[in-house]
Design goal:
The complex is a heterodimer of chains A (about 60) and B (about 325). By secondary structure, chain A is mostly helical. Chain A has one helix and one strand. Chain A has a domain of about 35 residues. The longest helix of chain A is centred in the first third of the chain and has 25 residues. The model of chain A has no long low-confidence stretch (mean pLDDT about 90). Chain B folds into two domains: about 250 residues, TIM Barrel; about 30 residues, no CATH class. Chain B contains eight helices and 13 strands. In chain B, the strands form three sheets. An eight-stranded mixed beta sheet of chain B has the order 3-4-5-6-7-8-9-10. Chain B has a three-stranded antiparallel beta sheet with strand order 11-12-13, with no helix packed on it. A two-stranded antiparallel ribbon of chain B has the order 1-2. Chain B starts with 14 loop residues before the first strand and ends in a 19-residue tail after the last strand. Classes of the chains: A mainly alpha (about 60), B alpha/beta (about 325).
């Protein structure tokens, strides 16, 4: 193999690896996804009462 | 991180995979809204003596067997006995103003599981000159944490133990993400206070307390306030006695001897353990009785006697 052929093959291999990695990165799910709110609460709702006092919960 | 199968919810019970999309079922539906004294969070170095509108939805990404708020943290949104308000971020900010609160707390369960509601409310609150406070276990990945911290002014973050084994056994979690969240929060410039709930026989050994205090000093700085909180038998941990005042006072003494400037005792009556003293001249700066400020001698963010700067947000 001539030096020129070797360099061509090296560049082609590097390009193939880069294209593959790019494809994988596009296909992979993002690590941080913002959740979408649902239209209706699945539980029971209550009317807003007096909130001026402290809560019974810790924290 | 938990992987959520289609049609299932995550560990927190409130984030659901519906047809391949991640949905939050509690956005805009808090189960608790109340005006608390800020000392209840506990935050002792952030706007002392003020009220703070405090909000929470059901759900938590931890399952601590000693949870003090397990009725809401371990609840499903569908549970009929835990009802929710309908309250948009806009309405939440309006309620904060109506109640003359300078700040808004995302608390009681964990704001990390109602992340989108917290984030959107915090953005609006900041635009309305309201400060945002998180009370959290800090069990979150770096990227979402960094994004949320942009809108946060102060946080009380639990460091439940310095042992990874404790986190795994008692909380169904791990230690490292919590330590990372603490370091990131402090580095972001927000005010950080740390709470450690002292549970008899599980994390009350003097060596463990010392190691925890050293970690706080080295990684967060000596000025970071540390609260040792008393345990009460709750949820699945009713077999252990409440933490004695003696144990909490010993923990405070150990943390102070490790070089921390501000160490407090909570959940029990303690005179000295609730007050703020100047780390320089040792004089009394803030005297507290329960959640009430009896006197506040801090002037211009410093000690009136030796003029040493005191870590905190005072106005």
């Amino acid at each position: 193999m001539t030096r020129r052929k070797f360099i061509r093959r090296l560049i082609a291999t590097a390009m193939a690896i880069f294209a593959g990695a790019l494809w994988l990165a596009c296909k992979a799910p993002p690590r941080f996804v913002r959740a979408v709110r649902i239209k209706q609460y699945p539980g029971v709702l209550k009317p807003l009462e007096d909130i001026s006092g402290p809560s019974k919960w810790s924290g | 991180m938990c992987l959520i199968e289609a049609g299932q919810s995550g560990e927190c019970r409130v984030r659901v995979n519906i047809d391949g999309a991640l949905r939050t079922v509690v956005y805009g539906y808090p189960c608790s809204i109340a005006v608390d004294p800020i000392e209840k969070k506990p935050l002792f170095h952030f706007l002392p003596g003020t009220g703070i509108l405090s909000v929470a939805t059901v759900g938590c990404n931890l399952h601590c067997t000693n949870c003090q708020n397990w009725e809401i943290s371990q609840a499903n949104p569908e549970d009929e006995d835990i009802r929710a308000y309908s309250c948009s971020p806009e309405k939440l900010v309006a309620l904060t103003k109506q109640n003359n609160c300078p700040s808004l707390a995302y608390t009681y369960t964990d704001p990390i599981v109602y992340y989108e509601y917290t984030s959107d409310s915090a953005k609006l609150a900041r635009e309305a000159n309201i400060r945002n406070v998180l009370v959290t276990a800090g069990y979150i990945n770096a990227e979402p944490w960094k994004k949320l911290l942009r809108y946060v002014d102060a946080a009380n973050i639990d460091l439940k133990s310095i042992s990874d084994d404790f986190y795994r056994r008692v909380c169904s979690a791990t230690l490292k993400p919590v330590q990372n969240a603490l370091v990131m929060a402090k580095a972001s410039g927000i005010l950080v206070e740390v709470t450690n709930l002292v549970i008899p026989t599980l994390n009350d050994e003097p060596e463990q307390i010392g190691e925890l205090a050293r970690w706080v000093k080295v990684n967060l700085g000596a000025e970071t306030p540390l609260h040792f909180s008393g345990f009460y038998p709750r949820y699945k941990m009713r077999n252990l006695p409440p933490t004695s005042l003696k144990t909490l006072e010993k923990a405070r003494q150990i943390a102070k001897s490790e070089g921390l400037d501000y160490v407090y005792i909570g959940n029990v009556a303690s005179k000295e353990g609730q007050n703020t003293y100047c780390p320089g001249c040792k004089k009394l700066l803030i005297e507290r009785s329960g959640f009430t400020i009896m006197q506040n001698r801090i002037r211009g963010g410093g000690c009136p006697d030796c003029e040493r700067e005191i870590y905190g947000v005072w106005k």
